[in-house]
Amino acid sequence: RIIHLADYRPTDFVLERVDLTFELDPEATKVEARLIFHRREGTDPAAPLVLDGDELTLSGLLFDQMEMARERYTATPDTLVVRDLPESSPFELTITTVINPQANSQLMGLYRSSGIYCTQCEAEGFRRITYFPDRPDVLAPYTVTIIADKAANPLLLSNGNYLGGGNFDEGRHFAAWFDPHPKPAYLFALVAGDLGVVEDKFTTMSGREVALKIYVEHGKEPRAAYAMDALKRSMKWDEEVFGREYDLDIFMIVAVSDFNMGAMENKGLNVFNDKYVLADPETATDADYANIEAIIAHEYFHNWTGNRITCRDWFQLCLKEGLTVFRDHEFSADQRSRPVKRIAEVRHLRSEQFPEDAGPLAHPVRPDKYREINNFYTTTVYEKGSEVTRMIATILGRDLFKKGMDLYFERHDGEAATVEDFVRCFEAASGRDLGQFSLWYNQAGTPHVSVAAAYDAAGKTLTLEIGQTVPPTPGQADKKPMHIPLDLALVLEDGTIAAPTSVEGAEMTGSVLHLKEARHKVIFTGIPSRPALSLNRSFSAPVVVRYDQKPADLALIARHETDLFSRWQAITDLALPALKDAARAARKGEAIQIDVTFADALLAVAADPALEPAFRAQALTLPSEADIARELGGDNDPDAIHAGREAVLTAIARTGAETFGSLYDTMTPDGGYSPDAASAGRRALRNAALLYRTIAADTPALAAEAFAKADNMTDLAQALTVLAHRFPEAPETHAALAAFEARFAENALVIDKWFQIQATIPGDGALARVMRLKGNRHFNENNPNRVRSLVGAFVFSNPTGFNRADGAGYRFLSEEILRIDAKNPQLAARLLTSMRSWRQLEPARAELARTALVRVEREVLSNDVRDIVDRTLKG
Ligand code: ARG
Ligand code: ZN
């Protein structure tokens, strides 16, 4: 069944209040839902009330406290239909269901794992708890009473403020919670069990005191300190930058170890994958710290963008996700280094979202149809959605963007809104027409912007011919031209930026050119000499720019641009031709020749003490094999791409030997470990140097020494990665892997790193290694983090291993999908998206990939996987 945006209509009944009582039991939890409804004015007085369910059985139904006549309702596992309801007066339904949290392996709805009861209701999990109008435009205040065995569940949590609790018969106790803020069911949460807590408090800008609590497994409290610090910084930042204050007496976070996603913004009670809460220097990398900070912020920011203002329907998912990702990006940029953060965002967008947008699973930021909404929690909705918000900020400028956001909060607080509502606020605040701009929400595919430049020395004019095209995507053959805000600079030979006396052919505000037509001829006058063109500065638009840039111009930009993102981009663009040529040569079986002149700019940046180390480390990190595959654009042979990239790395390692030696010696920590961004940058630069030095020396000695000396997880994991990926069979590697496993055997999150490092060892041996690791005592096929760290890492992050020429990797994936699907369809569907670029493979591999997909299509059971496999094969 396909759901269409165009079919949206409001419910026939308005939900006034929700009162839930849970009697928790591992296998038979009784849920009593008292719901007060009235018929919406103007709707058919005979219309029945239709509630959603999912694998439910009804065990009782009362109408205004009286047994409901059997002929007035029909219950199936997925609906409850109630007829003959009052024309206008409110009425109360009391629905009783009995559910089995222990048997809930989908991890949607109420489930129990490691002795903890917890819920995940977004998008449509609440209907696995009770029959309900389970859609985001049905908002109500909730009262929740939880009754449970006190010894096993001293902690009973739900949304809102704590009302009270007490003891009950037979060793049981209860707690009651009231959430005054009307919310849709997807924001409901319940947690019960025995957990440790870290407590703190925050005083809001209006002087209210909020209790902060982070619940973790007993003994792990010290590892929640960084998350707590990040939470307080997030609360402060949202007040200062967006004027948003927290609105309950308490804010709680619970870390659980079995979780399908990263985290969930349930009102006042965020539930997190513990991977994004727990950290200490011994067990967490710098990347883990940065992720924790970003995700804590993301979920906290949802309190306003998502909860206070929610989505009318799931088509509007980007309204909360794209906006909230934009907010967490801005937060991290303010807390850390803005340019380095921007580079990381763009790398992520290009490696994850661009392939999605160019393949069979492409969809608009706001889709107009879906078969399974869980499959639309994508990088397109999240990250491209964030870029679209960022473009609004770029087009309007900081002050008008702020004015538009203020208006959005003012107009829509307490509502379930749409993308149109959001855009209208910026139009009203700025007086600008964002009609054409809104195509970004509706047209899928990454726009291509092509540029040709001609400089006329006599007239001192620069003429740019700029064209844009948006490639066809499934269901969208023809595209209209988009409003693309292209930030650019004309960099003169002396490194200064030219200030044109006039610009014709397109509107320009500040340094941003507004492309709105399929072609523009833009003339800049008063340009004293031929400039180098720095295009799409700070990545002002999520587009692919095609411009035949001269290496000398790129080197000039790499040296002088004031926009650091563009300097990094220029270095990347200098390296790309070498990477592509090397891959092509390897594909033809020719000897790989590398002209290393491109490396000069890269090494100059790496050695420049005026630049921050984190930025220099980014410059040393070449485009990934997936990035190169995308640049090659089809008929791809992952082995050739790998061989080509290795040859380029080796050339850089040799040319820059001196630089890497001195970086390795000087970028040492001063004092003990600190997770701050500056220290992390030094470690990143030193670890990049370790990699290049190891490549040049071609022995495991240096990495083995680094492994032995590491006093933090960042250095330890990097040393282990270099050892395992470069010398998988060396005795040093076997010893290091064994030592790591023994040392961290009790820490599941660190063991995940151990699986992941081994699952991503390149080459034909990877599959056998992964199969062997599946038998390791630490592997647990019911834990999503474990599955992602082994199977997920192999299929997403091991291009040569997964794309083995004999197709064994694809066959392995199809078997894994079918087995995982039987337990956890969401996890299986997510893993299968690793096949999204199968058509870009060379014909023999593509055919083997197709065969594996066809097998999944034939045997699959869940709607989740069926949706992905059908689209992957068809598109
Ligand atoms: N809203 C959550 C977040 O982004 C993620 C929920 C994911 N849900 C899903 N069904 N995949 O913070
Ligand atoms: Zn989110």
Number of strand segments: 33
Gyration radius from CA atoms, angstroms: 28 Å
Number of helices: 27
Q: Please estimate the helix content.
A: 40-55%
N-end to C-end Cα span: 18 Å
Mean pLDDT value:
98
> Which segments are poorly predicted (pLDDT under 50) over 5 or more consecutive residues?
none
Keywords: Aminopeptidase, Hydrolase, Metal-binding, Metalloprotease, Protease, Zinc
EC number: 3.4.11.2
Domain Peptidase M1 membrane alanine aminopeptidase: 226-437
Pfam families: DUF3458 (PF11940), DUF3458_C (PF17432), Peptidase_M1 (PF01433), Peptidase_M1_N (PF17900)
Structure overview:
This protein is of the alpha+beta class and 875 residues long. Helix content is 41%, strand content 21%. It has 27 helices and 33 strands. It has an 8-stranded mixed sheet with strand order 6-5-9-3-2-12-15-14, with no helix packed on it. Strands 17-18-19-21-20 form a 5-stranded mixed sheet, with helices on one face. Strand 17 (196-203) and strand 18 (209-216) form a beta hairpin. The longest helix has 24 residues, at 564-587. The protein is globular. The mean pLDDT is 98. It binds arginine and zinc ion (ZN). Residues 20-187 form the Aminopeptidase N-like N-terminal domain.
